[in-house]
Amino acid sequence: MSNELKEFPLFKSLWLKIKEPDKTALIIVNDDGSDEHITYAGLFENTNRISRSLIKAGIGEGDTFAIVMRNHPEFLYCLSAALSLGAMVVPIDPRSRGAKLSFQIKNTRCKGIIVSDEFIGSIKEIENDIRDVPVVGVAYKKHHKIPVNSAYPVLNEILEKESGSLPDKALPMNLKRPVQIIHTSGTTGDPKGVMLRGQRLRDSALLGKIIYKYRDDDILYNGLSMTHGNCQSVTLFPALSKGITAVIGEKFTKSRIWDICRKYGCTSFSSLGGMMAGIYNEPPKPDDADNPVRVVISAGTPAAIWEDFEKRFNVKIHEWYAAVEGGLAHNPPGKGPVGSFGKPNFLMYRMKIVDENDKEAGPFVKGELISKMTFRPTKVDYFGKKKESDEKTKGGWLRSGDICHKDDKGFLFFDFRKGGGLRRQGDFIQPDYVEKIIGEHESVSEVCVYGVPASSGAPGESDLVAAVAPFPGKKIDVDSLSALCVKKLERNSVPSYFQIVDDIPKTITEKALDRILREQFRPDAPNVVDVQKLTSGKSR
After folding, report:
1. E strands along 46-155, which residues?
2. Least confident of 158-162, 361-365, 534-538
3. Over the stretch 55-99, which tens digit does the pLDDT of each residue have?
4. What residues contact 359, with CB distance under 8 A and at least 6 apart?
5. 324 pairs with which residues across the strands?
6. pTM of the model
7. Where does 30-96 show beta strands of DSSP type E?
8. Roughly how many angstroms between the first and final C-alpha of the chain, as a whole number?
9. CA–CA dist 187, 514 (Å, integer)
10. Which domains are assigned to the chain?
11. What is the pLDDT of residue 426?
């Protein structure tokens, strides 16, 4: 096996030289608290078993296949198999259903689907729409307690019976070949599939060394979905490249994250904005600061909770910014101001903020953030969408669609998505601060503040809606919540409405889908409270 390990495409792509094949590379923490430990040798052998099964299913170089599951070892086996065969894996948010799920499978011309047991029903719902796309493997998990469906190939049996040696059809490493198609979050419409080449794996390996500066004794945790670039580029590939252990949760849990980090000795975890607020909103505990975490790699930490988060949990925040299409900046602990996502590494990217005429904006002036690679052409490959790909990198610069500004020292700050600014009676509202205050209420587990067209009809103005979800077993006390808002917020920042929901809908990266909340919102809906009427004693 030793010679094969040296030539194994995944390990070679990540510059990984295996010294201890039996060392644990990956730990998957299941929802029920059980776990699965994967060694480097096991990763190699199981990748080859999946590769052989894909070959038998007629999937090879240039073909695409979908994977629909939460974070399980089989996900990494499939991704690694795609790299070995020259195929492309299409990771799909497992919560996708109906037309959205069908769209992603058909849009990328998949020749097969690998799915975990709990999502077979989602595939069956659309089988008439994807008749030519067979299920080529189902992964069954003991803790799911779902009976085996004999109509589909069982991945567990494939992993037990297939040979673990490198198949003859395995291809040499080629970093220029596409290896996966990751869909954008689709917050504004149908998601677009971004083709990522093998070079992206190597770039991810570099991030761990150059940007995050992981140590040889670090243990990394991530609860974000492997179907998204964050889990792969912040945790999975940097850990594999460095030869340290990655601990991956089956799915994100804000209530158990510290216990998981304590159990496995995790020294760093990855987070996105909505997650940071969710973790912070959990009821304080005496042992909050008693944990092994040294640094949180976060994208979108609300400035309003940044310092309090660090103090309460005894951690440092390493803020960063990136998108699956490209662009990267970061703000290491102690380097830049709170709330800033920092600056780009000049060896990797250049960034600037421009107005509608592409003229660079000065300090504290809002504009669109654009970026370009320093030593490589800046390209985006949306699968089957050449026109959109070209528009995304017009003039050689990647157009982020994010409105940002810089301070007088060049540190960058995110303001809002293009077309998503909140203005009320002439004031621009900072949703993250409003969310921080509302999140302090004892009954509020999650909150998302967004705008709807102002009832006054004033152009460009918004009424504020605070969608709030209670902790399990609790109800939102709207009277005390409104009193809290009036007491701690400026008048124009007090929400116009409370929208009571069971859960805040989110993307796979835990980003709040305010588009869905906005579609569900009606001023006269039974779950909507008019705050002005409430505070004046006239509420329903």
Report:
1. 64-68, 88-91, 110-116, 135-139
2. 534-538
3. 999 999 999 999 999 999 999 999 999 999 999 999 998 988 888
4. none
5. none
6. 0.84
7. 35-39, 64-68, 88-91
8. 72
9. 8
10. 351-420 (2.30.38.10), 423-535 (3.30.300.30)
11. 63
- The two tokens of residue 324 are 């699956």
Name residues whose C-beta falls within 8 Å of residue 126's C-beta, 6 or more positions apart in sequence.
Answer: 97, 98, 101, 102, 105
User: Which string of b and e fits 197-234 if b means at least 16 CB within 10 Å?
Assistant: bbebbbbbbbbbeebbebeeebbbbbbbbbbbbbbbbb
Average pLDDT, the chain: 91
Could you give the CA distance from residue 289 to residue 314 in angstroms, rounded to a whole number?
A: 5
The number of angstroms, rounded, from the C-alpha of 27 to the middle of its chain's C-alpha atoms is: 19
Q: Three-state SS string across 347-398, please?
A: CCEEEEEECCCCCECCCCCCEEEEEEECCCCCCCCECCCHHHHHHHCHHHCE
Contacts of 48 (CB under 8 A, 6+ apart): 81, 84, 162, 163, 164, 165, 166, 167, 170
Structure tokens at 113: 């689907």
Q: What percent of the chain has pLDDT over 90?
A: 71
Q: What is the DSSP string of 274-336?
A: HHHHHHHHSPP-TTTT-S---EEEEES--TTTHHHHHHHHT-EEEEEEE-TTS-EEEE-TTTS
**Rounded-to-integer distance, Cα 244 and Cα 301, Å:** 26
Q: Is 97 helix (H, G, I), strand (E, B) or coil?
A: coil
Give me the residue label for tokens 């703000």. Answer: 331
- Token digits of residue 348: 């990797």
| Average pLDDT for 423-428 | 71
